[in-house]
Amino acid sequence: MYVKLDNQPLTLINADLTIEFLTPTLLKVHELNGLLTQAGFKAEEEQLCALHERRLLVCGVSELTDENLRSAMSSAIKTAMNYSYRSVKLSPYAQHHFKALIEGAILGSYQFNSYKSAPKEITLKEVIFSIDDIDGVSLNVDDLTSILEKSRIVAHATNFVRDLVNHTPYDMTPQGMAVTAESLANSHDLKCTILDVNGLEEEKMNAMISVGRASINPPRLIHLAYKPKNPKKVITLVGKGLTYDSGGLSLKAAASMVTMKMDKAGGCAVMGIIKAVSELKLDIEVHAFVGAVENMIGGNAYKPDDVLVAKNGKTIEVRNTDAEGRLVLADVLGYAQEKIKADYIFDYATLTGACMVALGPYTTGVMGHNEELKQSWLTASEKAGEYCGILPFNRHLKKLIKSDLADVCNVSSKPYGGAITAALFLDNFIDDNMKEKWVHFDIAGSAYTESAWDVNGYGGTGAGVRMTLEWLLKLQKQGNN
Ligand code: BES
Ligand code: ZN
Ligand code: ZN
């Protein structure tokens, strides 16, 4: 499906169907008010009404906000896709809503059919935006074109991440992630370095190796680099790439194991982000590191009671092999900081079920030491249409991961605040000079869904991609001043 701009007012554009968003107030003054009201349409939030003989699809929104329009656009596209329309047209509403509508269209029309033997054929090929707002006032074509180009890149990167996450653990092994990274590097002028187990041993990444030891699919460390000529800043992104999390010897219960192919979502997100960064040609150097590992059981599995030595020399008492993501991240964070001296380091991980308990299934947990920096992420996520919430550190929680045997324990001694104690564990692997420049994102809830919400259908959501690109675009703008 192709989203494009037609340099004409809406009425002059040829398309099979027109999409309109109506608030109750707009409905009252609509020329088809009588017909729509008769059909039971009240412009309630998420209410859709198709007048096929008029080639019109109307969607209710309480107010014309980005959040409402993005979600309504996604529902409208899904509805249009159920019929045999080939093209739809609509107004960008206002320049500042255009991005939300484009993203709603591209994210809402996403389908993952790799495992369907006979996927349903979709006839809808084009979403055409006019250049007039709803009052008929002509908008600036150059501005609209630039918004369209950027939003397309961001939305397609999100769908790219969804595709990766949705692949089965059989198809998307650590080596599968590495091959994907290599082909991304070839098509996008990125540099790609892959470490296999020998490389990990040389780098003394004992924690990551231990997590992957019982799997027939050996771990891979992926490093993708985007290096523009005169970068204004250097950013490191680290992603948890557990291609499957069975829990290891602390085996998950059957019901909680299902969906654990999504435990690679953080790693997939950083690959999608760097893809978009290179397409947007940002003047920011970006490094994406992925710890791609499978957490399995077997005679050589790592065990509760083991003590692991991480890359930075710290020792870790393992009391639960299902708290494996933090072990992998400990090493990858250590490696990333040693290799790249960055201005900021951000990590993305489906790290804890506790994050979902704390914030619900839609919201990404934001943790770190720098209040201003965390706040900048809340602003970016809100603009981008993702939900974020800050989970605060405190010194009492820090004590809960003390170990009597080693430097730190991989699980907390108390059952509450698990998202924060996990982040405080990671803090042990952040160098002193990076403490204020680090943010950890727990995307355990936001990265995957089994029931559609907002612009997300069943499966991976691409959490982290839109908000990070928003944050980076802002950084790029600040650098220009
Ligand atoms: N990958 C899981 C976290 C997770 C749970 C992500 C549910 C998405 C949905 C992680 O590796 C894990 O198992 N964490 C444990 C930690 C516990 C053993 C301290 C958890 O959350 O139960
Ligand atoms: Zn786990
Ligand atoms: Zn995990």
How would you sum up this structure, described in words?
The chain folds into 2 domains: 2-154, Leucine Aminopeptidase, subunit E, domain 1, CATH 3.40.220.10; 172-480, Aminopeptidase. Helices cover 38% and strands 20% of the residues. It is built from 16 helices and 19 strands. The chain has helices spanning 24-28, 33-38, 66-81, 95-108, 141-166, 174-188, 197-202, 206-212, 254-257, 265-280, 325-339, 353-359, 371-384, 395-399, 418-427, 465-480; strands spanning 2-5, 17-22, 48-51, 56-60, 87-90, 126-129, 191-195, 220-226, 233-245, 284-295, 307-309, 315-317, 344-349, 363-368, 387-390, 408-409, 438-442, 448-449, 459-460. Strands 7-8-10-9-13-17-14-15 form an 8-stranded mixed sheet, with helices on both faces. The protein has a 6-stranded mixed sheet with strand order 1-6-5-2-4-3. A 3-stranded mixed sheet has the order 11-12-16. Strand 11 (307-309) and strand 12 (315-317) form a beta hairpin. Helix 8 packs antiparallel against helix 11 (325-339) and helix 11 packs parallel to helix 15 (418-427). It is elongated and about 75 Å long. The two termini are 37 Å apart. It binds ligand BES and zinc ion (ZN) (2 copies). The site of one zinc ion has 5 residues, from strand 9.
Write the layout of secondary structure elements.
Layout: E1 2-5, E2 17-22, H1 24-28, H2 33-38, E3 48-51, E4 56-60, H3 66-81, E5 87-90, H4 95-108, E6 126-129, H5 141-166, H6 174-188, E7 191-195, H7 197-202, H8 206-212, E8 220-226, E9 233-245, H9 254-257, H10 265-280, E10 284-295, E11 307-309, E12 315-317, H11 325-339, E13 344-349, H12 353-359, E14 363-368, H13 371-384, E15 387-390, H14 395-399, E16 408-409, H15 418-427, E17 438-442, E18 448-449, E19 459-460, H16 465-480
Parallel strand pairs: 1-6, 2-4, 2-5, 5-6, 9-10, 9-13, 12-16, 13-17, 14-15
Antiparallel strand pairs: 3-4, 7-8, 8-10, 11-12, 14-17, 18-19
Helix pairs in contact: 3-4, 4-5, 5-10, 6-10, 8-11, 10-16, 11-15, 13-16
The structure holds ligand BES and zinc ion (2 copies).
